[in-house]
Amino acid sequence: MSKTTIRISPFGGFDIPGLEGWLAAMAAKGFRFTMTTGPLCFFDRDEIQTVQVHLEPIQGSTDENPELNAIYEEAGWQYWGMFRGSFYVYASPDLEARAHTDPDTLDYALKKFFRQKLVGGVLLLLANVLLLGFYWQGSPWEIDLLWLRYYPVETLSNGKTIPFLLAALGFLLIDLSYLLGLFHLMRYRRTVHSGGKTRGHRGVGWLLAAGLLVLLPVLINTVQLFSGTSYRPYDLEGSGFVTLTDIEGEDFPISQRQFYYMDYISHGGTLLDPEHWYFHQYGAFGQNQSSNDVPHLEISIVRYPLELLAEMRAEEWSRQEINNSGDYEARPSDYGLDEIYYAPREGWTHVSEITGEKRVFLPGGIFILRRGNTVLFADYYGEQDLTDHLKHFAAMLEGL
């Protein structure tokens, strides 16, 4: 059986009397403090001890201090380890022992420690600004609230909104933990200076733990973005994707212009951004033509962590109005697909009231297909019948 036990500190990182009392209480249960990692405290199972614990503020580097340990050892204290790089932890079986006989020395140590933590607050503020600034496009004031109301899945799966909201909540808890800790440390300094006693404030440590837990997926998401693992394109050949050539025929000329021709599948996703695919192709068009004058195909696919979200996203897509398309028709499930929606698009001609110039808009159709937690949106402009390729689209989804 492992001799190591892990606990989350219920007290804030600056709450000296609270931490001292808690570590002593843990020793009385047979758990001897050894080290910390973030909000986690590690204990070795040991004999039940009745001890007094003292936290000595670290005033320099966070390395162990053999000279200081020797001084405490001579006074009957045993060195147990470091607490978050902020304190050296000492324990004594003598409950009347005093770690400091000089009030001025203790006051100086606490004053210097307080200043160090103020500097730490500046770094925490900088972290707030940098991370929230990176995801600022997901902030509530950047979101179309009407769009959020009617299309919540699309809005929240944009790769920015959820990271921003989680980061804001995480930093709120961490900042509150820091400010409360700083306030309690300031009160402790005043109490020590006046020769009085103060008690700990249980619960502040849980704020830090909860804040870090909420912030962790945002940090992982950010690392994925900066490391380049968020974007993983692959070749069109062998991808199984339906192409414009499949719909129009082998002899159909495909545009070779950079923006209108994709010989790859855009593919990506992170922890907080659902896995997604994108592909489009346009037919070849002349110098005086518009890209909208020739057949073209656009495919978007999203895979959600929950099937319910994919169902909601398919329903959202089916409610969005597409120019010159009819209503979506729900078709019976087939080819292993759970949901099939199809909207035909009629061709039409627009005549300018000013110039009299005619412009022909192509017909086509739109597919919304769902297989499990993956949903597809395929928008086609052209003379062919998109429904003839339903089996191919279904096989494409199955192969993802």
Compact description:
The chain is of the alpha+beta class and 400 residues long. The protein has helices at 16-27, 66-74, 103-134, 145-150, 152-156, 161-194, 204-227, 244-248, 307-319, 390-399, and strands at residues 4-8, 31-37, 40-45, 52-57, 78-83, 87-92, 234-235, 264-270, 273-282, 296-303, 329-331, 339-345, 348-351, 358-361, 364-371, 374-381.
Fold and architecture overview:
- The structure is a single chain.
- The protein has an eight-stranded antiparallel β-sheet with strand order 7-8-9-10-16-15-12-11, with helices on both faces. The protein has a three-stranded antiparallel β-sheet with strand order 1-3-2.
- The protein is α+β, with helices and mostly antiparallel strands.
- The two termini are 44 Å apart.
- A hairpin with a 6-residue loop joins strand 13 (348-351) and strand 14 (358-361).
- It has ten helices and 16 strands.
- The longest helix has 34 residues, at 161-194.
